[in-house]
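Collaborator request, handled under Task 6.
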Amino acid sequence: MKSIMIKAGMFVSGIAMACAMSVGSAGAQERDITIAVSIPAATHGWTGGVVYHAEQAEKEIEAAFPNIDVVLSTASSATAQVSALEDLSATRDLNALVILPFTSEELTGPVEQVKSKGTFIAVVDRGLTDPSIQDLYVAGDNIAVGANTARWLSDKLGGEGEIVVLRGIPTVIDDERIKGFSDVIAETNIKILDIQYANWNQDEAFTLMQDYLAKYPKIDAVWANDDDMLLGVIEAVDQAGREDIKYTLGGNGMKQVIEMVKEGNERTPISTPYPPSMIKSAIYMTAGQFAGQAPMRGSFLLDAPLITPENADQFYFPDSPF
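Structure tokens returned to the collaborator:
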């Protein structure tokens, strides 16, 4: 499928306007439409944001289109998501499924079963192992998340220095971020002293950063890969009183980190977005497929520009849990 780079905020705003303009014609439609949305539960900050934006999309779309029923389901594990998906498929006639899979492997088969009934499939973030199943794919640009951060950091360090890196969990998402970052750093004289997994977990990142601090007497910067981990890193650095660390950077655009950027924090002056609102983009696009006379097919990659004090307001959602 064709891949198209888009900016999340601009796209959702455009779809929202189209939805609002189509309310009159939607009311005249006779066919009821059911869009199921299956996502992980709010087990950490980013997925909490996913749940928030999915709930907002559900309210807005149902208000704009009385003939569309958005059915939202959350699951705390891949097994629970498979079970919930089977229940939805068995009890409802689904016109569309928007799914952020807990894991790609375990959900591919169950989603394929839903697809076999003629259901439109929109996949968000974690792609299926068989991409041919999905009609629509919406995700962030993980390589750009790493690469754009690395370019900024290299510029600030003058292409020289010693840094440490934290990885997330062993997934394609993490692999892509690390590749984007490492490929840029490899073109400089910056040395990556250490790179280990902290599983996108704040507490594990705190412990790993403590180990880094004990092991390396001089560290110029830290890339935490993710804002949940960044908070653990910052706590460890503050407790240790290490003044050699010039920058502590993450990614994903957590509300708390965006506030640091807005305030001009010296150690965390930038971030990169990997917005949980991408679930909202996918739901809106799916609604457009059925009610907006706007056929949606293909892969849509959300851009990952640097978030700076100058543009931080565009990425700041004060009511979001993330």
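The cover message to the collaborator said: "DSSP finds eleven helices and eleven strands in the chain. Confidence is low (pLDDT under 50) at residues 6-14, 17-28. Please let us know whether this matches your experimental observations."
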